[in-house]
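Recap from last week: sequence in, structure out.
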Amino acid sequence: MGFFSKRRDKLLKEEIENAFLLNEGETVDTRIYWEAAERFAQDHGAKTDLYAFRQATSFKMMIHFQEVSITFTRDRINGTVNISAELSVQEELKRLGL
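Predicted structure tokens:
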């Protein structure tokens, strides 16, 4: 993994953690370009979907020992990414004791 890939991963992980810990379930605007976020998501097993002229990609990752569902959506105006992070369904069921 090259220098820029490590830097990209570090920045995106920080943004995702902040989105999850500070704004769980809400959409957070970032200054990260879509292409970098999409590549990060693909590295984590995501596929990009095109719907209603918008691009979005979703994947799961572990944050503080919890499985979190992450969604990146491309901002059509400036080409940056909006992040939404929330507990996965399995983690919600664990939290509820089911």
